[in-house]
Amino acid sequence: MSKRKGILERLNAGEVVVGDGGYVMQLERRGYVKAGHWTPEAAVEHPEAVRQLHREFLRAGANVIQTFTFYCSEDKLEISGNVKSITGSEINEAACDMAREVANEGDALVAGGVSQTPCYVQSHNETEVKAIFKKQMDDFMKKDIDFLIAEYFEHVEEAVWAVEVMKTSGKTVGSTLCISPHGDMDGVPPGECAVRLVKAGAEIVGINCHLDPLTCVRTVKLMKAGLEKAGLKAHLMIQPLGFHTPECNLGGYLALPEFPFALETRAMTRWDMQKYAREAYNAGIRYIGGCCGFEPYHIRAIAEELAAERGFLPPASEKHGLWGAALEMHTKPWVRTRARREYWENLLPASGRPQCPSMATPADE
Questions:
Q1: Which among 105, 115, 143, 180 counts the fewest CB atoms within 10 Å?
Q2: Residue 365's pLDDT band (boundaries 50, 70, 90)?
């Protein structure tokens, strides 16, 4: 088997890299993650559940399988109280093994991910925070993951510290912030955030989680403009929220009254995802995936929208007629009329909840 191309080799060649989707929220809904703490002990306790979700994302077209290590820092695990007999290292290593196993079933890469820490908020102690990131990085290096991602950071300062630590590994490093077009929680604008991340050593920068895809595309565009103004270059990455958040508030969906147990009415359709994929591609973003709320069929929608650019369809498209084409065989004539792109592109879906508002007032406003 020939050596598969690395993440930078793919991006430097102009390839579209499709990321995977959300894990903690999907696994919470399936009964394997506890809401509130969102820690990933399921990688050890219920590996079959994590492995199955990896496989579904791979089949949907993902080129990257991320380790299920979100919030797997020792300080977060201790605070959660969910994990009493399993160490962070055991979770990290089990997650790496599973991600590699599934990635090897296709042409996917494995990305080891670290995220924001309680320690940063409590102490702002650079030495302590960096020690936490290094411990996780060391676990990843034992398993020789393909590259590293520092994701889900509300403060660019902490993300910079994460990047600085991970650059010592010699691996490619990407970094995504969960911020709005207004900037991070300290008021640092997106463009300046991108500059700081690239100067710290990140080769891939962008946005993940907290806000919906088109809002995140706007934020990545601001990051791109900031890099261009500073004369810096980096590949762009986006892995947004899979829910509509037109409120576009600073704290994102965490401040919405529906978070986390009543977000279903905000769920995006596969057709929303195709529009997102095209907008992201047109903005110059080439690493395009998803975060919380993104299910495998959403990732398939990204892969289908960009099939011409990628040169192929994902395996999961064998069970999906493009733009509803398979509906031509339906017994109901009014359903058969929906077997066309124009219908789904122009549909304004009803919520079925006539007494509910279309938007909410976020708690942080």
A1: 105
A2: low
